[in-house]
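On clarity, I found the account of how folds are encoded harder to follow than it need be. What matters is that the chain and its backbone geometry are given together, residue for residue. I therefore recommend that a typical entry be quoted early in the introduction. An entry of this sort, consisting of the sequence and the corresponding backbone structure tokens, reads as follows:
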Amino acid sequence: MEISYIFLIFLFISIIIAFSIGSNDETFSTLYGSKTLDMKHILIIATICAILGAFVLGRDVSETIGKDILNIKIDNSIILTILISTASWLIISSSLKIPISTTHATVGSIIGIGLLLGGFSGINWITILEMSLWWILSPVIGYIATYSTYKLIHKFILHKISGLQNVEKTEKIFSYILMGVISLTAFSRAGNDCSNAIGILTGIQDGLSLDFLLIITGISFAMGIIILGRGVIKNVGTITELQPSTAFSTEIPTSLILFFGTLLGVPLSGSHMLVASLVGLAKAQRLPRKGNLWKTILIWILTFPASAIISILIFFPISNIFIIFAC
């Protein structure tokens, strides 16, 4: 089995993963929920941000995923196992219209393989710990920051506005600001999430050029949003009632944390941050939450063990296939 054919198989599966990530992306849900833009215009902006974000920001997170987690030698069977495991859990979650963390699915798959082949020492737990701190703190910060931002906007801006015309004018201003903030979020999200699709490929060899892979995965990511992602966007966008001003409150922490985390090469969950922010907004407004939040949280909890178990179950069949072709 020639290495060129193997690489094409890896690339094909990475494209499927990027597509699955896009189909599970809820970044533009607040634009939809606040009725700032219709779905057609949301998809146009999403496509542009996906391709540019993957190409410009994807390299550092890709290298973290591909080189810093496993302490075992990465071979073709390991790469294929991680790719298929990640894609499988993403497809399952997207079919349920639940926004999960692609990062958690990928890292869960990597941990499963590391424990299977190298035991406890097969995983770089220091890297996992560092990422875990980001994973824990980012949704907490999103919740608190959204709650505080809404209260400040309501107290110092919205509360002092009188008259329907002035309210509409203010909300229109916030709608323009919101589009800019979400565009930054989508740009960062593409760089962070697309890295989960091709990051493990950097473990094949040192000095692997990522530019072509990042562009391809960016396009696939955008196609996922266009074809299937609208269901998740609608689902998350209706968790609570939204106006441009309130949607802005949810997007500020998500945008900033995701942007700086991506620059630092940290794999993050934009889904967790945004959903936590929307819950914080509902709390600040004293409004009932819409949608099945506990179902979403349950899927989040299951993501690590589920993706790890999938990778463990499929590794030996995949490795046997490589042995057969090698003979």
About this structure: The radius of gyration is 20 Å. The chain has a mean pLDDT of 82. Residues 44 and 74 are 38 Å apart (CA to CA).
